[in-house]
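Renewal narrative, Specific Aim 1. Our central claim is that a sequence can be written position by position from structural information alone. The example that follows is taken directly from our test logs and has not been curated for this report. It begins with the structure tokens describing the chain, in the order in which they were read.
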């Protein structure tokens, strides 16, 4: 029987989940959730509803509109906010902790995201417990009644104490048998996300913040689909290099832009560490669309066609709007590839309000 407190708790979680889903676009655009995320949980600020209370007392004023003063005269005490500090509480915000797994479920429900169908597999150390064996010792909760009865019957028959006319079987301590588990390793689906970002002078702080918010939600969804996820970070201007997460989102460069340098480094990482037959590979590249030259864009297209697209589950390009970026790279990709291949997705991120739509584009194919 479900306890009342459990019913209340489940009802509260449903209310919280509905509130998050209703305000999901606002949370994503403001970056509130991404800024409060921990390793397994995230703290979400939700408005706290204060219920009105009736206070009983004497009605000395004689009713509505019976107080002192003339019509239209301002009520005393409601001026420009001058006066002493009050002692009453103001509006509150309720901090609710939600697991990243729950958050991924909310995102998937709101955007109607299909579950990802893994492609690569690899043997990893995973403790998988299966109750396949029988032991003489164990907790009473795991006692195997059928095996215990059989053992007691065999003992009584062997000792000559079993009476077919009075078939009573009484298990003794040595007759008891218990279920026991065995630990085995099973193949688990592995995935790697390779983030690439243009950090040249045209990519400002706001553009990097949009990329950070987008990457958080991509991580949250893909991590919910795989038991093992690795993340690599590549930054580039005219040259590319691998960095850690903090450097990726805060580095500021002032050089030119050569997008092919990032694609070449990503292709090298895949070749060295992530064989496609074992890994599900998700490269994401973010830029404002400026590239060094049309010749380098042609080189990028060749890299995608010949090396990257045949090896990855999906290659995603997100173009963030910048005051200095031309946005030409996405135009060139769309003109060359069109609707094919299926595992190339491009999306524009004009501002923070466009982040949710870009996420839907990136994750909507379930690859």
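The sequence written for that structure reads:
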């Amino acid at each position: 029987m479900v306890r009342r407190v459990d019913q209340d708790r489940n009802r509260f979680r449903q209310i919280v989940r509905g509130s998050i889903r209703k305000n999901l676009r606002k949370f994503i655009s403001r970056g509130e959730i991404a800024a409060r995320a921990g390793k397994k949980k995230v703290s979400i600020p939700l408005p706290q509803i204060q219920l009105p209370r009736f206070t009983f007392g004497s009605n000395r004023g004689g009713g509505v509109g019976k107080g002192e003063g003339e019509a239209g005269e301002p009520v005393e005490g409601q001026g420009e906010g001058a006066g002493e500090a009050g002692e009453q509480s103001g509006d509150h915000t309720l901090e609710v902790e939600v697991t990243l797994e729950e958050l991924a479920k909310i995102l998937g429900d709101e955007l109607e995201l299909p579950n990802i169908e893994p492609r690569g597999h690899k043997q990893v150390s995973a403790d998988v417990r299966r109750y396949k064996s029988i032991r003489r010792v164990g907790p009473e909760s795991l006692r195997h009644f059928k095996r215990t009865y059989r053992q007691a019957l065999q003992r009584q028959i062997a000792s000559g104490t079993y009476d077919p006319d009075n078939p009573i079987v009484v298990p003794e301590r040595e007759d008891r048998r218990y279920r026991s588990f065995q630990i085995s390793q099973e193949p688990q689906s592995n995935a790697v996300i390779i983030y690439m970002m243009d950090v040249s002078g045209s990519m400002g702080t706001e553009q990097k913040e949009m990329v950070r918010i987008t990457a958080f939600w991509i991580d949250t969804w893909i991590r919910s689909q795989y038991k093992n996820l690795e993340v690599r970070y590549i930054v580039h201007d005219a040259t590319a290099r691998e960095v850690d997460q903090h450097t990726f989102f805060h580095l500021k460069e002032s050089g030119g832009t050569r997008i092919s340098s990032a694609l070449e480094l990503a292709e090298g990482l895949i070749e060295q560490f992530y064989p496609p037959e074992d890994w599900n590979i998700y490269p994401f590249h973010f830029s404002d669309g400026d590239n060094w030259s049309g010749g380098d864009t042609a080189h990028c297209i060749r890299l995608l066609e010949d090396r990257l697209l045949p090896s990855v589950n999906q290659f995603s390009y997100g173009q963030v709007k910048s005051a200095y970026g031309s946005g030409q790279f996405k135009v060139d990709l769309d003109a060359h590839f069109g609707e094919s291949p299926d595992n190339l997705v491009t999306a524009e991120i004009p501002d923070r309000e466009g982040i949710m739509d870009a996420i839907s584009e990136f994750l909507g194919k379930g690859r």
